[in-house]
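Morning. Coffee machine broken again, so started the prediction first thing and wrote up yesterday's gels while waiting. Chain of 188 residues, entered below exactly as on the submission form.
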Amino acid sequence: MKHLLLTSLSIASVILLTGCTLYQPGMEQIENNNISSPTTKLNEEQVTQLNYLIEEEKLAHDVYTTLGEKRNNKQFINIPKSEAQHKSLMTQLLQKYSITDPTQDSIGAFSDPELTELYHTLLTQGKQSPQEAIKVGIAIEQKDIADIEKILPSFINYPDIQAVLNKLLQGSRNHLKAFEKGVSSAGN
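Came back before lunch.
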């Protein structure tokens, strides 16, 4: 009887702990594309942060896509697809919070002039050599990670936004690893 009780408690603990570790607030909304209406309005700074972040995702996509036309390596073929998914997640958030999407369809076109300049600078560097292209990828992902980590605390009361930002953060960390692995294969 004692053994049965211990076994039952062990199983219940495993089920409870597994459920807790797999659940991230807001993630079910993202995965089901069922983003409900917001309960709290964002302030101006938060809107600015999200607008910058979606354009930063577009920057990564546009640079990688353009370099992918010149550089034949898997990072510049696979990662732009992921960046497009990241932008799509951000678009859903902007729509949910009734924020006008600042992104433009044209490759290399940004509403933020600093990002336009950065795009051209990174593209010029990346076209110099395969090694420089990989360095550009590393720089973009490091910037993405730093920017997401910087704004994450601003959205502590928004589990849906935190879930998206954490997903983007994980994606950027994975991309960074892929580019770092590419350093040796780029002939550095």
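The first helix runs from residue 2 to 22. Going to sketch it on the whiteboard this afternoon.
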